[in-house]
Amino acid sequence: MQARATALEKISELRIAEAHFPFSILPFVMKSPSIIALIHGPDQPGLVSRVSSWIFLRGSNIVHADQHEDPEAGIFFQRVEWIPSGPITEEAAGFEKFARDDLGMTAKVALSTDRPKVALFVSKIDHCFHDTILRFRSGEMAGELACILSNHKTLAEEAERYGLPFYHVPVSKETKAEAEDQQLAILQEHATELVVMARYMQVLSDRFLTQAGCPVINIHHSFLPAFAGGKPYHQAHARGVKLIGATAHYATADLDEGPIIHQDVTRINHRNAIPDLVRKGRDLEKSVFAQAIRLHLDHRILVYNYKTVVFD
Fold first, then answer.
1. pLDDT digits (tens, 9 = 90+) for 215-244
2. In which domain, by residue range, is 43 found?
3. Same domain membership, residue 138 and residue 282
4. In a domain, 237, yes or no
5. 3-class DSSP state for residue 119?
6. Are 77 and 39 contacting, i.e. CB atoms less than 8 angstroms apart?
7. Is 3 part of a structural domain of the chain?
């Protein structure tokens, strides 16, 4: 009876917490703040031991560690997350200096309490648009959806219902540079640290990608380069393909050729009509896009040359 009473008390406390904190932030409030480090550089003996010893000697506790070595290039990669024993910002800065000066590694250090601001770019197709917003609202993503930018007004009312700032920036061949200047100003106004393209049917220029000052994640079907252009699922159906998929990657100046973050596929057969392919493809696009955003915001990706190292 005592155990049951204790359990009921804990449930009551949790409900009180839910009343005081929005659901979207509750999972993060209840976790101890941690430091997350992504390091890479020339492989050398004892790296794992030296990293763990630096953390242990400060009385801190490692909660996740994973590493990978590229034997051909001789490059070592590691993601390590730990709960600090002292002031979190000082320990994070100390580790970054240790990795750089003592290990000769490139290090990116973040705090689990960071909530990067995210801008969502969209055109008219809305499946990734709705799915992404709802995942942020439910607390799945370790960031804040700050604004929506679109080259059409189609989803303006939907954005308003979600209570998100919506910016309509028309884009044409003649006004592309001017439109991108407006978009860059909006990103700066919202202090954006990540752009996600939820089926934004425009190519971002090299100038935009450089001046945005933050990563850009794109999602598309995996038929490229075989079925480029309009109606790819119609093209795939006409050719009798047996697999369809989706790809999420970082955007670069080379169209749809940036480092791949996440992919998935599903099988189809002769019984599947074009609407079936479209539905299955959009389901994949939503889940793959969400996973890519989540991996980025959880600091689980290291970009290396033209590919990525993605830690579990």
1. 999 998 877 667 777 788 888 888 888 888
2. 31-111
3. yes
4. yes
5. strand
6. yes
7. no
User: Which of 256, 264, 283, 298 is the catalytic position?
Assistant: 256
* pTM of the complete model: 0.86
H or E segment and range at residue 214? none
Q: Which of 13-17, 26-30, 143-147 has the lowest mean pLDDT?
A: 13-17
Q: Which residues have C-beta within 8 Å of that of residue 81, sequence separation ≥ 6? A: 34, 35, 36, 37, 62, 63, 64, 65, 112
Q: Is 181 a catalytic residue?
A: no
User: Three-state SS for 217?
Assistant: strand
pLDDT one-digit tens code per residue, 107-120: 999 999 999 999 99
| Cα diameter, the chain | 74
Phi/psi of residue 107, each to 5°?
A: -130, 140
Report residue 212: phi and psi, to 5°. Answer: -60, -30
Q: For residues 61 and 189, what is the distance between their CA atoms, to the nearest angstrom?
A: 38
DSSP H or E segment with residue 202: none
**21: in domain:** no
